[in-house]
Design brief:
The structure holds 2 protein chains of 2 kinds. Chain A is mainly β. Chain A is about 10% helix and about 35% strand. In chain A, strands 5-11-10-7-8 form a 5-stranded mixed beta sheet, with no helix packed on it. The N and C termini of chain A lie far apart (about 50 Å). By secondary structure, chain B is mostly helical. Helices cover about 75% and strands about 0% of the residues of chain B. Chain B is built from 10 helices and 2 strands. Chain B has helices spanning about 10-35, 60-85, 90-115, 125-145, 145-150, 165-185, 195-215, 220-250, 260-290, 295-305, and strands spanning about 155, 290. In chain B, helix 6 (about 165-185) runs antiparallel to helix 9 (about 260-290) and helix 8 (about 220-250) packs antiparallel against helix 9. The relative contact order of chain B is 0.12. The chains are: A mainly beta, B mainly alpha. At the A-B interface, helix 1 and strand 8 of A face helix 2, helix 3, helix 4 and helix 6 of B.
Chain lengths: ~260, ~300
């Protein structure tokens, strides 16, 4: 084979080597796009019989040692944490109560529809960290991303089910307002200027969800009587679930426990 | 076949070598972007935060530096292509120079699309692979413009089957496929398994090439040197691959890309480009020094006809 022919074939090979790998493309013209679906009427919950599921998310084992974040690549970030900062991938107290877990009703609501609140859920970039690290909101509910830092960030939404995007946000820039059309648990939020900055956004069609705080506690209230699958999702440990039946006005306690070594832990 | 002596342009050759060296620096810069997860730290293109001089903080250092070096290599390639077109008397070399120019422009466009389309559609993988092919092309131009390539060189005959040309070309193809698998894994499009299997395949074809070079052409100095170089580069790259993989596993839970992982993965990526370039040079030497089957047979018939 002549050298020049080999070169031409190599060029052709590169041009044809483009495997498609991307998140879901979304246009309002798609037949299955949520905006193309007819709006279903909201069914009110009878509060006279509604119950709740309460509980705690726990880590059933030793939490990994939290590692120190190196912020020296941006002096504005380093100066915001003169004593240093530990990463927040796994935050658990001595009792194993796990923070930043998203607890939600996965099954059992049937065809019920719910109105999305108009109040936005807000994520701020403070001290070069997403605050809060994990948020949850409804489909159609506004999300607001702000930058309170004296340095710039890029806000990169890595979505599989919704439309992903990547925007810069300098100090003093207006907040970024957005909404989501599809359920997704959970959408990673990144900043590639500061690679330790990670956040997560969980999106649901219903209002029965909560993100646990440092005490690992949650309450899913105003649930109609019935049998539900309740799931807890964590960025490191994946998901665990439990089936729960609640009667009229009943408040059922449960514990959702992750084991270290599950998923990426 | 005897080559006649042709005009050698020392300055042009040195410029081609310089462009190849700058391209190697560009490959390092590109690998640093990926290993530091900085590709999207600058959301706009071709400007960076609307400027040619964005604040150089965090990941922007890697991404913007990569763009500046890429622009420099682009300019160098324009000059190289123009110089070759004006000065080289070989039509195929002039067209290869133009091909390098088309490749570097395509690289720039792919780089921009990588950013504007948020790393989707396999574009980062295409960008990575074309970058290595471009490097191989510039290395080739450095060889073709050398005094050695243009001088009268005795040819040797290859009576073995398959021919060394075929084996050396297969070696290049397998190594390039390994580059593709590595890029696809690095950009999280596939698992590491194809790249691991490819490593074994590269060891096999490189060893096959080296064994044949030693068996058939041990007395040819340039081919013997090429054999040693090929074996060395492939061996080092294999070890670097183990190191890069270990560093990924060891730092998987780290909150950010760790220096040891960045160093090993960047070195492995750039060494991969050097491995491909080395394989290309070995193949070129085989084509230059070893008569191809039909040509050798023609020469033998001519000699017999002259004697009879």
């Amino acid at each position: 084979m002549k050298v020049r022919n080999a070169v031409g074939l190599a060029g052709l090979a590169v041009l044809t080597l483009s495997p498609v790998s991307c998140g879901k493309k979304e246009t309002a013209l798609d037949a299955d796009h949520p905006s193309s679906q007819p709006a279903l009427p909201v069914q009110p919950v009878d509060l006279a019989t509604a119950g709740s599921i309460i509980g705690t998310v726990k880590l059933d084992g030793l939490a990994p040692k939290r590692r120190k974040i190196d912020m020296t690549n941006d002096s504005a970030c380093a100066s915001a944490h003169p004593g240093g900062l530990l990463d927040e991938a796994v935050v658990a107290d001595a009792s194993g109560d796990l923070a930043n877990a998203v607890v939600y009703v996965k099954e059992g609501l049937g065809d019920r529809t719910f109105a999305a609140p108009s109040d936005p859920v807000t994520i701020d970039q403070k001290g070069c960290m997403y605050s809060p690290r994990v948020v949850a909101l409804m489909v159609g509910q506004p999300l607001r991303v702000m930058n309170s830092d004296q340095t710039l960030h890029n806000v990169h939404l890595v979505s599989q089910e919704n439309r992903g995007w990547n925007r810069s946000q300098r100090p003093g820039d207006l907040a970024i307002d957005t909404k989501f059309d599809r359920e997704e648990v959970a959408i990673p939020l990144r900043c590639n200027v500061h690679p330790w900055m990670v956040g997560y956004i969980a999106v649901f069609k219903h209002p029965y969800f909560q993100v646990t705080g440092p005490d690992g506690r949650f309450e899913l209230k105003d649930l109609p009587p019935g049998t539900y699958t309740v799931e807890a999702w964590h960025e490191t440990y994946g998901a665990v679930s439990q089936r729960v039946t609640i009667g009229p006005k009943e408040s059922k306690p449960i514990i959702l426990a992750f084991k270290p070594g599950a998923a990426g832990g | 076949m005897v080559q006649t002596t042709r005009a050698f342009h020392r300055a042009l050759h040195r410029y081609a070598v310089f462009t190849a060296c700058c391209t190697l620096v560009l490959l390092v810069a590109g690998a640093l972007v990926t290993s530091n997860d900085a590709a999207l730290s600058v959301p706009d293109w071709p400007l960076s935060y609307g400027s040619l001089t964005p604040p150089m903080i965090g990941g922007i250092v890697y991404e913007h530096s990569h763009r500046l070096i890429a622009a420099t290599v682009g300019l160098l390639t324009i000059i190289l292509a123009a110089w070759l077109w004006r000065s080289d008397d070989r039509r195929w070399v002039r067209w290869l120079g133009l091909g390098a120019l088309v490749a570097v422009v395509a690289q720039g466009i792919l780089g921009g699309l990588t950013v504007l389309l948020n790393l989707h559609y396999g574009i980062p993988v295409a960008h990575a692979c074309l970058g290595q092919l471009f490097f191989g092309t510039v290395i080739g131009l450095s060889v073709f413009t050398s005094r050695w390539w243009r001088s009268d060189l005795p040819e040797v005959e290859d009576r073995g089957s398959p021919s060394i040309h075929t084996v050396a070309s297969v070696n290049v193809g397998v190594i390039f496929l390994q580059v593709v698998f590595g890029a696809a894994f690095r950009h999280r499009d596939i698992s590491i398994l194809p790249h691991l299997i490819g490593a074994v395949a590269v060891l096999a074809t490189a060893t096959w090439t080296a064994v044949l070079l030693r068996r058939r052409f041990a007395s040819v100095g340039a081919l013997d040197t090429a054999r040693i170089l090929l074996h060395s580069v492939v061996g080092v790259q294999f070890l670097l691959g183990i190191g890069a993989w270990w560093s990924r596993l060891a730092t998987a839970r780290a909150p950010q890309p760790m220096p040891v992982m960045v160093a090993l993965t960047v070195t492995h990526t750039v060494a991969g480009a050097l491995t491909l370039a080395c394989a290309i040079v070995v193949a070129l030497l085989c084509y230059r020094l070893v008569a191809r089957g039909r040509e050798a047979a023609y020469e033998r018939r001519q000699e017999r006809a002259a004697l009879s």
